[in-house]
Amino acid sequence: MDEIPVSVLLGALVVLLLLSAFFSTSETSMMALNRYRLKRLVQQGHRGAIITAKLLAKTDKLLGVILLGNNLINAAAAALVTVISFRLFGQGEFALTMGTLAITFAILVFSEVTPKVLGAAFPEKIALPASYVLSPLLKLAYPIVWFINLFVRALLWLMRLKPEQSAGEHHLGMEELRTMVLEAGHFVPQKHKSILLNLFELENITVDDVMIPRNHIEAINIEAPTSVLIEQLSTSHHTRVLVYQNELDNIIGIIHVRRVLHQAQGGELDVTLLREILREPYFIPAGTPLFSQLQHFQENQERMGLVVDEYGEIMGLVTLEDILEEIVGEFTTHAPSQTGLYRKQEDGSWMVEGSSMLRDLNRKLQLKLPLDGPKTLNGLILEHLEDIPEAGTSLKIADHTIEIVQTHDRVVKVVRIFPPAPEKQ
């Protein structure tokens, strides 16, 4: 060793530091690698990804060969620095202290911190090429790694830890998926992001939140005169209409408007035949989550259903279109009676019917009314005031000023919603 020039020893030290850096950056990049991106590359047949996936399937052995190589190299580098220090400063405590400080600084900067920062920043670019080196190294050092892991497993057994049970894939929950979508940035288009977020909300939204209220359901009374029935059917804005007998709670079926108008072209309508072509109504229990109801519509091949409470009384109507609007956004094909619920005024305020659903108001008018209580604007106002208000009464809910315009039969019929005041700088 004394005959080897210092320059050669310094060159060997640099090589050892680079090898140590390789193991450090490989370890960090392997652990920081996106497992789902890796699966995608494996499915595409990427050879480096396949090798990397096999290494990550045996994490204990992978870490064993990386740490084995890293520690051996660091120990060799420390011994080499000791020799260099003795050659430069002579044998003594000063030389040993200087060598220890120098190698500690060099390993921290060049072989630990910097490589691991790079490995965490560019895991895919480093881990996949590194797998070509780590895989044969693992095969060569397998007996040593296996022997070391014997002691590791024994120590874990004494600590009553079983990493095998938790070493599998990390499954993402709904909140984790939501966070991934929100942080996707420009990788996911804004419209796609909105649809995905709406899908996550389907389990938290029930049919009560999106149903057409009872007093807005379009239906015909089969006991009405024939002329009235023909007029109602010919002016209907829907392809399917509910049919009841005497009262709305007594729904007897659903008819397809086109089929009825076809036989009523002569000016007469056969009520007996009308009863024969009725389809049985489909009922939905109140509180059913939208995602579950979407599946029920698909399984039962239905497009609309009546929401009923625990007493069997009709609360409202839900269609497949209502659920789809919660996912992809609002469609423009609405009946005039529905589009007239919101009328914008010259001062920027909105005239809104009290029976409007709060979710619709928030979505269409960009409001922030609370959704954890009543479902309609009328219910929200009555709950807030704990009394039946008179026309001209004003209140403030969620920074929105609301003025009662018209009331009738203990129900708020029309209100005016003012936009929130701009925040002062």
TrEMBL record:
SUPFAM superfamilies: CBS-domain pair, FAD-binding/transporter-associated domain-like. It comes from the Bacteria. Residues 2-201 form the CNNM transmembrane domain. Its main location: membrane. Gene3D superfamilies: 3.30.465.10, CBS-domain (3.10.580.10). Keywords: CBS domain, Cell membrane, Membrane, Repeat, Transmembrane, Transmembrane helix. Residues 277-337 form the CBS domain. GO terms for molecular function: flavin adenine dinucleotide binding. It is a multi-pass membrane protein. One of its GO terms (cellular component) is plasma membrane. Coiled coil: none annotated. It is found in: Cell membrane. The keyword Magnesium does not apply. The chain crosses the membrane at residues 62-86, 93-110, 130-152. Belongs to the UPF0053 family. PANTHER family: HEMOLYSIN-RELATED, UPF0053 INNER MEMBRANE PROTEIN YFJD. This is Mg2+/Co2+ transporter CorB. It comes from Sulfurirhabdus autotrophica.
